[in-house]
UniProtKB/TrEMBL annotation:
The lineage of its organism: Bacteria, Bacillati, Bacillota, Bacilli, Bacillales. This is 1-deoxyxylulose-5-phosphate synthase YajO. The keyword Oxidoreductase applies. It comes from Paenibacillus allorhizosphaerae. One of its GO terms (molecular function) is oxidoreductase activity. It is an enzyme of class 1 (oxidoreductase). Transmembrane segments: none annotated. Residues 15-314 form the NADP-dependent oxidoreductase domain. Keywords: Oxidoreductase. It holds the Pfam family Aldo_ket_red. CDD domains: AKR_PsAKR. Its EC number is 1.1.-.-.
Length: 339
């Protein structure tokens, strides 16, 4: 297992993180489906493989994921890094959602109780909240750090402009600063490369990746014929928009590369992400030991420079304005002189 500093901090995390979203049961049985005994096996195997970074959220299976993860990591608490998230609705009350000071304080206390811990290593705001001033959210997060309930803070699913505004405010006020952005990123979902990745690189914010296999699409188990089968996860939980036919054409190349390495499409897809210098850690979620074992084998897979470049070219996102204009207008004389 390899490790990395998370952003501009001293927090060391494994390059593969274990995502516990599947722990528990609930109204999305294709997602929430791992009971305690199976969860124990998955967590033990992850730790044996060198994973020290575990991710959950208060909204996963109505808090069951946090409860189970806290119970399973209790004996290894000082050895592990626990990330949890807040922001999604957790009750019927009007104020039981969002990123207000009231809700973040209540959500943090509830997560501490469910995780059975005195502190949260990485506390992440799970989404944006258009109904709460940004300054209120950031001051509340800073207070949680100052109170010792949270060690580090991060954001998830925020646009780059908002994250940039937040970091500027944090620095101006001397508040705890975001060290992490947890974002969706995959071979067939590279939108964050337009603005989020450049912002993170320039501001010391580490990127952790959720859904690196695009909701399981890049695992290779789906075909054009079985995609809509009712037993498939994607038939009931197809959250990530992408052109499926284009995705299958990408998978054809991924399968060719996988065959040449005696690997699986999932391993190749994960290996491509790990080859990106801007990626700190990749979350892998598994409901079965066989799935986890398959994902762990990516540590042994080394794609060639040509293979990484081929996949990069095949899935490169179309440049957005003004990015393409800025690139086009770089002064060639100066650029040549500085080479």
């Amino acid at each position: 297992m390899k490790y990395a500093q998370l952003g501009n901090s001293g927090l060391l995390v494994s390059k593969l993180a274990f995502g516990a979203m599947t722990f528990g049961s609930g109204n999305v049985p294709s997602v929430y489906k791992v009971e305690l005994d199976q969860a124990q096996k998955l967590v033990d195997r992850a730790i044996d493989a060198g994973i020290n970074f575990f991710d959950t959220a208060d909204g996963y299976a109505d808090g069951q994921s946090e409860e189970m993860l806290g119970r399973l990591l209790k004996a290894r608490r000082q050895e592990t890094v626990i990330a949890t998230k807040a922001g999604f609705r957790v009750g019927k009350g009007l104020v039981q959602a969002g990123l207000s000071r009231k809700h973040l304080f209540a959500a943090c206390e509830a997560s501490l109780t469910r995780l059975n811990t005195d502190y949260i290593d990485l506390y992440i705001v799970h989404k944006t909240d258009p109904f709460t001033p940004l300054q209120e959210t950031l001051e509340a997060l800073n207070d949680l750090v100052r109170q010792g309930k949270v060690r580090y803070i991060g954001y998830s699913n925020w646009p780059a402009w908002m994250a940039a505004q937040a970091v500027q405010l944090q620095r101006e006020r001397g508040w705890a600063t975001f060290i992490n952005g947890q974002m969706y990123y995959s071979l067939i979902g590279r939108d964050i490369e337009h603005d989020s990745v450049p912002f993170m690189n320039n501001n010391g914010v580490g990127l952790t990746v959720w859904s690196p296999l695009a909701g399981g699409f890049l695992s290779g188990k789906y075909t054009r014929d079985n995609l809509k089968d009712p037993d498939n996860r994607l038939s009931g939980f197809d959250l990530l928009p992408h052109d499926k036919e284009w995705g299958f054409s990408v998978l054809d190349t991924v399968r060719d590369i996988a065959h040449s390495h005696n690997a699986t499409p999932a391993q190749v897809s994960l290996a491509w992400l790990l080859a990106q210098s801007h990626v700190s850690s990749v979350l892998v979620g598994s409901s079965k030991i066989a799935q986890l074992e398959d994902n762990l084998k990516v540590a042994e897979l080394k794609l060639t420079t040509e293979e990484v470049a081929l996949l990069e070219q095949l899935t490169r996102p179309t440049p957005l304005y003004p990015n393409w204009f800025s690139a086009m207008m770089i002064d060639s004389v100066v650029a040549k002189a500085l080479k």
